[in-house]
Structures are given as structure tokens and as C-alpha cells.
Amino acid sequence: MQTHMLDRIGGPAALQLLGDLFERVRDKRRSGAQLAGAPSPLPSRVTLNDAKLSEYVHQLADPTVPLYRLAERIPHGFRGARLLDMLLHGSLHGSSTARSVPLSRALWLIRIIGALELDATHKDVHKYTCDWTVRVLHWMTQLVASLREPTAWASQWTYGTALVDRMVQESLIEPYMLYRWIITQLGKAHDGVRACLLQWAVLHTPAILGHAALGTALLSALGDLAAEPSWLGQQADIHFAACVKEAPLLCTALPLSMLAARGVPERLQTQAQLLHGSLAPLLSPGVDIVDAVAISLLDRGTSTTTLFADYFLARHASAAVAQHRLFLLYHWACTEARMGHHRIFVAAALVQLLDECQAQRLVLPDGRHLPCPWTPFSLGDATLQWIDSLDANGPKHHLHVTMAARLLGVLAQKELFSYAALLQRLMARGDVRAISELRTSRHSATVPIRLLRKIPIPRASISLQQQRRFTIYGARTSESYEEATERRAIRELRRLFEWDEVVPSALPSCVSSPMLSSAPLSVPSSPNLSSALGAQPHGATDLLNGFQLHQRLPHLWSASPYIQARIVDKFLLPTLLNDVSGIHPDRFALAATLLTSLHAMEALAKLMCALLDGHNLMCVVSICHTIAAHARVWDALDKTSSLADLISPYALADAPLLPGITRVVPATGRGMTLALARHALAALSDLDESVIRYAPLPQAPLPSALSPVALATEAVHVLLTPSAAWDDACTALIAAVPLDEAASLLCTQALNFLADGHFASDAMLTCLASLAGTAGVCLDLVAHTWIRSAWERQATEPAWTTLLLSLIRFGYLDGDRLVQEVLCPFLRTAHPSHAGWSTCIILLHALVFTYTVPGSPCSLDVMGHACWYDVTLVRMNLGLTDGFVPLLHALDICQAPSSADCTQLLQKCRPQLRTLWLSYPDAVWHGFQAVDAQRRPEALRAIQAVLDGSSNERTDAWSLRLDDAFEGALAALDIRMRWDVSTEPLPSPVIWRAPMDILLRWDLPPAIVAPFTTMLLMELAASDRPGPTIVTLARFVQAWTGNLIPCDTKAATRAVTALPAVASRVSRDEWLSAILSVLRCTTTAAPWVNVLDLLIQSAGPWEAAVAVRVQSVLPPATLDAWLYQRLSSSLRCTSASVGSLTRYDSARTSPSPWTQLEAMYPPVEPNRDPWACPLLDRTGLLSDLHAQKTRETMPSIQHGAPPWLPSEQSYGDGDDALSRYPAVLPLTKRRRSSISPAPKRARH
């Protein structure tokens, strides 16, 4: 029977019947409960003594005491923190045996007291709610700061947060103020308390992200917290990513560095950068200004891949911008306003990267893929369009047609340009004329026709070469002009390269005449080479003139680049590589000069690799100079890695010796290459090529009977005497003193001997370089001290200058420091009759101008061709050093007759120096800063003399213009230097046309920034056509690296007030840019609310982001007043996204939450409906802490907050925070594996 009854009861029909009965009973009880309750009037308040008040609190905490009994006597006289403490502790004085008041009963008392106070004071409901929120938050602040005993504090925190959350649900406090408090405390709290605050912030994140200012502040706090290497930092990083995914617009108001560090998507970073730069790339500041910035990127020079990303993949990249940048790149590579062989190779490498990017094949060295942001266009067609535009532009752009031909030849070699397509294009248009016309008008032909003749294509097919010959010369069977030139040029080169096959194996003997031997690296000059080159003529200032290559190879230089490339490919390079072992430094200097002048840099790289691969120690010094001077070329040709591998062994110091073993430094040792090899590696490493750094090795001294000075004197005697024991000359010296001291003593004694009338030998020069390299020291201090002492004793013998020049050549003496610290002070202070003027002028001629009289101790015929070649490469960069501007200043104020020769030479160098400064204005600024402050006006006058002195070389196109793409940087520097020396540094309106980011590179002084910004703001407010002013201000803001830009407060307020009126005078992008620009100048002006009103009424892609940025920086008081005003106004948002991000809170329900009698008087507690509230009422976030068995008991902290909380660390055993708080921590399965568990903590 029982089994039968159980089967019937457990059937589906019986269960359905029981469920229906259960639902009916519940509905009846609920309807009965609603009918039973009846609203009552507000109770009265009574004053209770402590005993009765304590009894009242005890009854309130007892859920069995009905509320209607407690409502009969509401205590009077306590509220705020005292009321909340009473609810928390369940007693008047915080008894340890009492329990907290249940949340529902606590809310009843809070609501009753609030209703009574509103009835008594007749306050505004919203104002009272804000006042009550302030009191609650003050109480929570005290609770956060009262952490003493962690276990008890955790219970208090659980109750406090639960009570506050219930008040938020009942609209008894302002959520906006609570959320702001949570975010503020998240940045102020200590250690474990932040974990509790973070958990609380996670629960309220959806509501916080609905407010622009609060959401931005939360993301900022999470970003700062995520930077910490802890479990809490990992959780903050996870939550930061979740917030960005939920509200991506808010992260655009964060600092750019935080976005990059947290891995925010590139699209959002791009948007944030545009907003931070006031949308300046979206405006139209003028092509010349934008081009000036692009040209500056090309001039400054980085690795090719980095330069491509900065140049082509700008934030405003598009197909039209990319094509314009391509034309600008071609023009930069071929213009006469720039110097350097590297330009055509850098341009070709960038075009190759552009081709790979458009084909979606460009991958960075770190493995990242660079996608193309525009629709690909044909590079070949674009190049042909650029060629067609050259004739239309005319000569005003100073295009060097030969450089353009070489550029197109490199592009054709990389298969990025088709010579056949150019030939067919010209033939199809009828531009190729008859042979008679071409022969008579070769120099007056159009640019495309001249390019057709000049473009080097040495590896072109035979059919293409025949087609080219037929196009230019017609059906001609006899030898053409180009073929005859090629034949004669090769004959001249054969005569020049009749090398002497006998290479001596020993050093030449020392000379006894003022004419020193010419090969300081063991090998003298070939007699044939010396007779071919002859002595250096008076006035030679470059390598070609110094080696007389113009006179000896006239047909080679008259040939077109097409013929020159054929000669290099078919004769010159095979000749040089045929016998690499026979090439010594002088021969390499000649070959390198030829190849560099012919732009055959790839052939030069092959020659250097062959010499280094064959361990040709004699040429390493010159090779290192060549590598350092043309580092950008090797990077563009992708030769950096191979050259670095080959040069690295020469940068290694000798191995250390065991105590008691004597070191031997040979006269021609590998140590002489160390400084230059490391210099070459440093030049390559500046282009992102990783190289090894080496440190000098010490040598322990041994006791000796002689003094170190005597040993150094004896070593110099041996090195100056013809002997076979040169390698042992310094053995005794380096055994008695450390290596660095030995090098200093040998240098000092060598200078003393040369000052007494002796003449240096090759053994002395190379041995001193080898010793300095082995010791790993520089000899600047020793040389400077000796020179000053020699001039004090009126030494007149100039032979010691050869030693200084050799040390500069080997890299153990800095020529820039010598000029700046020794020569310049001498020029400024020495008497005109001083005996040191002759040696000073000799050093200036050799180091600065490479212009010496034959027979001088530093001339080409004395020092040798290799040394002169190396010093010339050093001189190429001297105009970019810090000591050159002080030298100009010293020459300008020097009154000695001996300096007149240098002044005349400076006149000849002005065009080249001006062109060099156009590319590197930073060098001029650094040199200007190296001059004493009181002498800077004179230095500025000397610089201006150089710039103005070359104006007669060309037409008015050489005048410095701020809005010119190639002259804007140097023109801006001219104004910047005038600001630095002016007594009234007020900016001029002409600076508005300057490239601002270039100008701000030179650290504008505060006296300039504030007036300049104020002037722009005043112009923005007063102008009827503020568009140009907005563009200038936006570019200035984009270049500014700080936060707020200093300006006048009144001007900023006036500009903010005028922004609504400006909206009708400019385009939408310009108005938004004006808002962002003024926002970088001030955030305290009250009229910002009018701007916000206009923003939320507009609909566009940028309005919401600008509104977020404005709200995120406004003062809280200003923002709160505007947000509350929107509650009662009829303002409507056109854009839904803008409206959702500028809300304050939803409108309050009516009647007030404080006076809702139904909620104020719930049913009697013992008879309340058990289904009226959830069965499981979790009252706090940390209720699970008490059930964790694998965690330690939290220790008592006597001096501050604990370093960790149970919610912050995990100790394994399956009881970690990721599993204990799945609802609190937004951790998905996909990212859970990326977080490593924290290490276990040892138990006590």
C-alpha cells in the first residue's frame, strides 16, 4: 500500500498539483500582506538617555522586536557617523557581545530619521541626499583608515559595504558621489585594502562606466594599479581590459603611455593620439609645414624600418598622403638643398619597404606585421608621374638631375622602376627627337630626356641596351659618344691603377727631413701612385682635388652615370677584387674616394668586406672611418649586419695576462684598431644593429729599477731610431707601470721630442696607437695639458702637430674637444704676437678645412694619402659637433693677422656648411648651447654671417623661409636662438608658419611659451576668421609634451567663452580641435558647460570622444553642477552615444525615496511573508573569507595596513582567489591560464 501511494504521489500529475497549490497559497498570503499594511503618519522623535538609547539599539538589532514598537519612539540627537557606528556595532558604545543591526531594519531607521529631518527642515530632497552621502562616505573613510585587527575589520567592511549598497538600491545616497569615492580611495589606500576596494569597484563597474568622468578615472586607477607586479596588479589588468572592451571610448582620454603599456588595440591608440594632439593631423595647416616635419624625419635618420613606419605610416596615412610622401622622398633624395650620398640609397630602401607593405609582406625585426592602411597603388606609375612633374616644376626646386638618374637606377636595380616603361612612354608621346636635335641640345633637353640618357642600368638586357642606343643615336654603326668616353675613361683608370707589386714587409726607417714618410701603416706610397697624384695643390679642400682625380680622370667625370656604372661594374670593381692582398691604406683611400664619388657604395661594401675577410690589418683604420661616415648607406643596403660581424673581432682587447708574465705591445699591433672599430660599431648600433660592447683589460705593473719617465724616454729613442726591435720598445715601460699610465707617459715624451726638433716615425705613431688601444684609454687630457704648457713656454716647432693628427686619425684623440677646449680659447685670448699662432693655424687647417700649404707638417704630401683620407672623413662631421659654433664665434672676434687665412677659407666653405646645417639644425643648436650665455649674441651673429654670406651664391630661393619644406627647420632655429638672446622674448606672428614640433625640440623657455599661447588664445577669441589660428594652436598643442600649457588665465577664460561662437565660423573638425587645444591650456574656466551643451547636441564620430575628454579633466565641482542641471533641464542629446556618456543619473522617482511610507513601514517582522525577499541574502563581498581553510590567520598590524589580505594572495591547495571569487573577478577561461599562481607562503 505504501509503495502504491508513493508511486502516485511521485507521479508528474501529483507534483503539478502540489506546485499549483503552493503557488495559490503564496498568492493568497501576498495579497493578504498587502491588504494588512496601512500607511501611518510620521512618528515623533524623543530624547533618550544613554541607558534607554542602549536598550533601543539592542531592540533594533533583535529581529523579533516588531518595528511598529520601535516607531513609537524614534531617538533624537544622533545621525551621520554616530548613527552608522551604532548600526554597525549593534550597541551604543561598541560592545564586543553585541551584533550588527540587520540591514532591512537599519535601512528602516535611516529612512525614518531622514524623513523626519526633511519634514522638520523643509530641505530640498536632493540636497539632503547629497549631505547624507557626504556623511556616509566620511564614515567609510574612517572605516578604511581604522584597519587594526584584520579579522574584525573584515566583518565591519562586509557590513559597511552591504549597507551602502542597499542604500544605493533604495536611492538614499547619490551613486555618483559613491563611485567617485571608491575610485579616489583605490589610489590612496594601502596594500590589502585596495583588494577590497577593487572588488567593490568591480561590482559597480557597469554603473561607473556610464559616467564619462568616473569611467575615465576608474580606467586610470586600474592602469596605475596594473603596473604593479603582484596578484592584485594582474587582477587590475584583467579588469582594465574588460572595461576597455565594455566602454572603448573612455580609454581615449587616458595617457598615451598607459594605453601602450596595457596593450590597448591600435585603433583606440590612434584615436587617443589624435585627441591628445587636438586632431591636428585632420586639419590643413599647409603642405609645406607638414612636409617640413617629414623632411626632418628623413634628415635625422634612424634605422630604415623605423624611418619607414614614422614617414609613411603616419596617423593620417592614406593613399593620397602616401603618394605625396613618395614624391617628397624622391625630391629629398635629389635636391641640391641637401648633402650626402646616403639619400638615394635611403630613398630606394624606403620605396622597397613601401612596396612590401602594399603587398602585405612587411614584417618588423621583432616579428610584428605592418599592414597597409590604404588601397595599394602602382609605384611604377607613381614614379613616372613624378618624372613628368619635374619639367612642370622647373628649376625653382633645385633638382639635381644626375642624382635623380642615380636614384632611378637604384630603383630599377631593385625592380621598383622600369626603364623600358619610361622609354616607351617618351616614345609614345613623341618626346624623343631626331639624333641631330639631341646632339645639339643635350643640355637644353627636357628633364625626362636627360634622365633617359643618364639612368644607370649596367645589368640591363642586351635588347634593352640596344633599344636605348637606337633611341638616342639612331641607326649608327660607328662608335658613339658614350662608348668613346667609356673607352678613354677605362684607359685613364688603367694608367692610374699601375700598382707597385712589391709590398715591403718592414716599417720604413725614420726620416731626417721635414717630409715625413707617407704611409703610417707599415707600407709607403707607391712611386707610380705618387707620381700620378703629385703634391697637393694650394687650395685643395676635398679628396678629389687633393688626389688630383679631376685632372687625372677627366673622361670619367664627364661621363654620364650610365657610363660610370658600366665602368664600375665591368672594370673598376673586378680590378680591385682581383688582388685584395695588394691593397694597402693609400690604395684603399684612392679606391674608396673613387667609388664614393661615383655613388658605387655597394661596390665599396664588397671591397671592404673582402679586405676585412682577408684580415688586412693595414686598411682596418680607413675602413672603420668609411663605415662610420656612411653608416646610413650600409643600413639602406642591408650591409650593417655583415659589416658588424667582420669588424667586431678588431674591437676585442687583448686577453689579460697572469701575474709575472711580460706583455709585449707590437709597434703595429691590433690595439691601434680598437678605438676605430668600436667607433664604427657604435655608428652601426645607432641604426638598431646590436653589437657587442667591450671593456679595456688591466695589466698589473711589475717592479723596475728605472723611473717611468726614463723608461718612456728610452722607448721614444728606440722608436725614433732605425732598428729591428720596435716591437720591444715599450716592453720595459708597460712592465713597470699600468697600461693607461704607460700610454700617457709615452705620449708626453713623444710630444717633447717632436717639440725639440725631431721628426716622427711611423713606428712611433703606430706604437702609441697600439698601446693606447691595448690600454683602452683616450689621450685627450694628456694632449690638452701638453699643448697648453707648450704654448706657455712659447714653443715654435710645429712637428708635434703630426702626432696629434695621427692620434685623431686612430681615434684616441677627439678632434671636436681639441677645437672646443684648446683652440677656441687660444683664438679668443692669445696675443697676436704669440708664438703658438703658427701651430694653431696648422691644426685648424688640418682639422677644420683640410687645406694646407704643401710641405706643412699636416699636409697631404707629408702625412700620406690614407691619413689625409681619414682626417677628411673626420672633418665631414666636424660641422655637426658642439665645438664648431664656438669656433665660428672665436674666429669672428679674433683680431690676430694669422686668423685671416682661416676666415678666407670659411668664406669658401659657407655654401657647403649652410647645406649641412639645413639637414642637421640640431647640431647648430647644440653648438650654440655650448657657448657661454654672455657670448651667445656674438655666436648668433657669427652663425647668421655664415647663413647670409651664401645668399649671393644663388637667387632669392636661398633665403630662409619658415614655410619651406627644406628650410623651415633651420629658419625656426634662427628664431629660437633670437628668442634665447633677446631681452624682450615676445613671439612674432611670423612664427605661426613654423613647424611647431621642430621648434619645441629646442626647449622653449617659459618666458616664450606663456606669451605665445596667450597671443594665440586672444586671437582665437577675437578673430572673425579663426581657422588659421586654430591650426597653429593645434600644431603647437600636438608638439607640446607636457600636460597643461602655461598661459594667461584671463585669455584662457575668454577663449573658452568664445568657443560656442567659433562653432559657426569654422568647420566641425576645426571647432573640435579648438576645444581640445584650449582644454590643454585651462580646465578651470566655468564656461566649459556651454561647450558641453553644444557637444551633446551634435552628432558625429568625434563629439562623444571630445565630450569624454572634456569631462575627464574638468574640476568635480564644475562637472557636478552641470550634470545636476541636466536633470531638470529640457536639454536633449542628438547623439545617443554622447547622451549616454554625459548622464548624471536617471531622474528620481516621485515621491522622494525618504518619504515612501510603504517602504518606511514594512509588514510586522514576525508575520512577514517568507517569500517577499530572496532566500539567500548575501550581505557582503567578503563573507567567504571565514570559510577558507588553507589561508593563514591575518596577523595584527601595529604600524600601518597589512601587506596582504586573504582576498589578495593565494596559497594553492585548490583554494585560490580565482576559484573562490568567480563572480567578483572577471576572469574568463581563455585568459585564466596566462596568470601564474602566487607562490605558497610558509606556515608558522
TrEMBL record:
Belongs to the Mediator complex subunit 12 family. It comes from Malassezia sympodialis (strain ATCC 42132). GO terms for molecular function: transcription coregulator activity. InterPro entries: Mediator_Med12 (IPR019035). PANTHER family: MEDIATOR OF RNA POLYMERASE II TRANSCRIPTION SUBUNIT 12. It is found in: Nucleus. Residues 39-111 form the Mediator complex subunit Med12 domain. It comes from the Eukaryota. This is Mediator of RNA polymerase II transcription subunit 12. SMART domains: Med12. Residues 1191-1244 are annotated as: Disordered. GO terms for cellular component: mediator complex. The keyword Transcription applies. GO terms for biological process: regulation of transcription by RNA polymerase II. The lineage of its organism: Eukaryota, Fungi, Dikarya, Basidiomycota, Ustilaginomycotina. Keywords: Nucleus, Transcription, Transcription regulation.
